[in-house]
Design goal:
Layout: H1 5-14, E1 21-23, E2 26-28, H2 30-43, H3 51-60, E3 79-80, H4 88-102, H5 109-120, H6 136-145, E4 149-151, E5 159-161, H7 167-170, H8 176-179, H9 182-196, E6 200-204, H10 208-211, E7 220-225, E8 232-241, E9 244-251, E10 256-259, H11 264-269, E11 274-282
Parallel strand pairs: 2-3
Antiparallel strand pairs: 1-2, 4-11, 5-6, 6-11, 7-8, 7-11, 8-9, 9-10
């Protein structure tokens, strides 16, 4: 799904700074193109860093970015590019796609779009609402298959997790694309059944103090959910400041992207809806 630079040039001439542009299966604004260029320039000198350190450099470019939920919930389904506001999973996804793109010899907005699609949609193809990877567990599995990262939860001291998947199919009224579409609902049920046939590991809260030493800066931290049928409640990027382990994330409490002010173990012990963590490590 390559995008030509002629499209970017045309958008510059239009000078629309906030109006969304839709071309084929992609949606973005001129400000997103400008923000991409700003980030590429800001991190260019660090592009030879290992990926785990580099993604933290990228993530810090978005500190203070507003937290906004449901930015993807627009119809018809498009690959939505939004570097102006974010939620937790989109923040991590955005930083990873930007970090991968910045390491190219000639980073381009086109390449960023392609990587974003490869992370967000099943097989990188935008084909309606159900082609998006709604469950973070599927997002993790596809990213690992594509060589972007690997899950290291078990190696970090994790325990088996009896994960169930049913939240979306049992709460269709929460999703407008499911509430009035039996076909979409059936497709989501099929995805849930496939995900439930796989094995999962997590580090429970009680084990985290002993296992935290195995978590590295730049690891993706997925917080497992206590809600029935839901796999992941939150997600962020691990960040070590000396001996202190915390994380960078799009915070619903702060309403923006922050370096969490409390250590990881203290944070999760204060959140009843989170049972533990899964750890995903970027490939070099």
């Amino acid at each position: 799904m390559k995008r030509t630079l002629l499209l970017i040039a045309a958008l510059v001439c239009l000078a629309f700074t906030s109006t969304a542009v839709e071309k084929g299966d992609v949606r973005f604004t001129q400000r997103d193109v400008e923000r991409f260029d700003e980030v590429m320039k800001a991190v260019a000198a660090d592009r030879d860093l290992p990926m785990d350190e580099f993604i933290v450099r990228v993530a810090k470019q978005f500190l203070g970015t507003p937290y906004v939920a449901e930015t993807l919930e627009q119809e018809p389904e498009r690959l939505t590019v939004n570097l102006r506001e974010t939620d937790c999973i989109l923040f991590v996804e955005m930083c990873l796609a930007l970090a991968l793109t910045a390491k190219d010899d000639n980073p381009s907005f086109d390449s960023y779009i392609d990587r974003l699609a490869a992370l967000r949609y099943r097989d990188g193809v935008v084909d309606g609402y159900t082609s998006r990877l709604h469950y973070t567990s599927e997002w993790i599995a596809q990213g690992a298959d594509n060589g972007f990262f690997k899950e290291v939860t078990k190696e970090c001291g994790g325990s088996p997790l009896a994960q169930k998947f049913s939240f979306m199919s049992t709460h269709p009224s929460y999703y407008k694309q499911l509430s009035n579409s039996p076909a979409n609902l059936a497709k989501i049920r099929s995805v849930e059944q496939d995900l439930q046939s796989r094995s999962y590991w997590y580090i429970p809260k009680a084990q985290l103090p002993n296992c935290a030493k195995n978590i590295r800066t730049g690891d993706i931290i997925a917080f497992t959910s206590t809600v029935g049928g839901l796999d992941i409640a939150h997600i962020g990027i691990a960040y070590r400041d000396g001996d202190r382990l915390t994380f960078i994330h799009a915070s619903t409490t702060a309403d923006k992207v922050i370096i969490n002010p409390t250590p990881l173990t203290q944070y999760i012990n204060g959140v009843k809806s989170q049972s533990g963590v899964r750890v995903i490590r970027l490939n070099p």
